[in-house]
Structures are given as structure tokens and as C-alpha cells.
Amino acid sequence: MLLRPVRDSDEDAEAVRFVADAAFAAPHPVPGGGGVRFPGPPPDPGAPLPVPAGPRLHHARHLARTDPDGCRLAEDAAGRPVGVVLSSRREGTWSLSLLAVLPGARGRGVGTELLRRAAAYGRGCLRGIAGGSCHPAAARVQRRAGFELHPTVRLSGTVSLARLPAPDGAVAEGGRGDRDLMDSVDRRLRGGAHGPDHEELLRHCRLLVTDDFTGSGYCYVREGRVETLAATTRRLATRLLTAALGAVGEGRPVLVGGLTAGQQWAVDVGLAAGLELAPAGWLGLRGMRPPSPYIPSETLP
């Protein structure tokens, strides 16, 4: 087995997509089996589709550019991809975005070695964050990496705006000029700014921001999915999520995932909009409390 850096190329991005999709679609192994796929559980028939392939390809290339030492492809003797890990460092916060192993390559230590390389890249970071799934092997892997596991739920369904009150304040369209605002909110909630990740998210998402004398916050929305949301108060987070669901539109499918126990404000907004609640796995954290009010990105947590 050969482990090499993920390159910023269409070919490697497609290899990442292939491995992730194959691992994502495979049945969960029995307890004791190897191989995990981050960051989410397989979608049920009534849930919105997973992150489209296009944005995932772009995110893989983005992390290959910004964090080549934290992104590795595992290849077999014939040069075929069998596993992948994507991770990043942002101001002392290490993020594990993806760890996936092909079903046929599980049980051979591929996932363990990929995680070891990614963890070495994050050595020295005081904080860590990783999305997870309901996959039993994923829990073992995250615990071995020193993460505390915090159960999460997701909201999904079609939006009903009839019972949802209007936002309680101004929400504006955001852009690159809001980078300092967003980095400041990130540092307060997760200990490190997303930095260059904001440039990547802005290429593929609609950005909503709010800023008043009580604080500030931002929310990215893409194709019926709340990609990520961060705010300095629950009131502002409620305002942003309400506006985001309004932006999705009446009767349109939507997904809001990665909600830890501290995000009851988001649960209230989602239920008011007619969305349904379901278990979603967990959020892995190391050296930090669950950020709140915060909805992590599935691909760039």
C-alpha cells in the first residue's frame, strides 16, 4: 500500500469522490469490522440528497491546496485508490473532514494508517473537530484519535413558512467584505478562524450575515442545505436560521445537520418550519466544548 498526498487535480478529486461514494454506499460492517466514512450517515428515502459531487470535488481540491500534508490517498499495488483522508489546520484547530476506505480494503489497517498520518499533521493543535456518522467503526476511530463524541441530530423535510415568524432583525447578503466578521465569530466559537475555507464556501454557497450592537453571525446556504452557521448569541443564530429557511423557500426540501444538544434554538426553528428530527451520529471534539450557537459544515467543519 502506498500513501501519498492528494494533489490539486481533477484526477485526484475524482479519486476522492470515488472512494468516499463507494464507502458511503456500502452496508455498515458488523461490530469489529474496519473502515469508516466521515462525515454523515446514509440518507433515508425522505431526506435530501447528500452534498452534490461537484462541491465535494471542489472542496477536495481546496484542501489539497491549503493542507497537502493533511490530505492523503491510499493506493494498492496497481495504483488504484482504496482509501482517503482529508484534514486541515486553522489557527490551532485541527479538522478531520473525511476518512473513507473501500469496502474491499477494510480490515487491512488502511484506515488506521490514514488516520495516523492525519493526526500527525494535527499534532500541536490544541483543539480538534470532526464530523461523524452512526457507523460503529467511526466511533472507535474517533475515540482512538482522542475525540470526545457528542451525539447529534438533524432536521430535514420540506419547509413550511406559515408558522415561522419573520426574522427579528436585519439579515443581509454577505460577501468577501465580511471575512473579518466571520473569522472573528469563528475564533470565539471554535478557537480558530476558518480562514481560506471562507473563500471556498463563498464560491459555492449563498452567504447571509447579521451584525448589530448585540453581536454578529453568518450562515452559508447551498441547494437546500444549511452548510454552516455561527453566531455570537442564540438570538442572532435564530434570526439567521429563520432567514436561511425562508431563503430555501416554501415547500422546498432542506437539511440542517450536525446539531448537538446545545443547539435547541435550531431545533425550535426547524420544528416550527415543519421539519422532522432524526438522529445523525455525533460531533467529535478534542480540547474544546461543543461550539454554540454553531452548525458545523459537513465538509469543512
UniProtKB/TrEMBL annotation:
CDD domains referenced in this protein's UniProt entry, alphabetically: NAT_SF
* Cross-referenced Pfam families: Acetyltransf_1 (PF00583)
Question: According to the UniProt record, where is the region Disordered?
Answer: 30-55
* Domain N-acetyltransferase, residue spans: 1-167
**Which PROSITE patterns is this protein grouped with?**
GNAT
Where in the sequence does UniProt note compositional bias of the Pro residues kind?
Answer: 39-53
Write down the SUPFAM superfamilies for this protein, in alphabetical order.
Acyl-CoA N-acyltransferases (Nat) (SSF55729)
Q: Which residues fall in a coiled-coil region? A: none
* InterPro entries referenced in this protein's UniProt entry, alphabetically: Acyl_CoA_acyltransferase, GNAT_dom
Q: Which residues form the signal peptide?
A: none
Q: State what protein this is by name.
A: N-acetyltransferase domain-containing protein
> What is the species of this protein?
Streptomyces glaucosporus
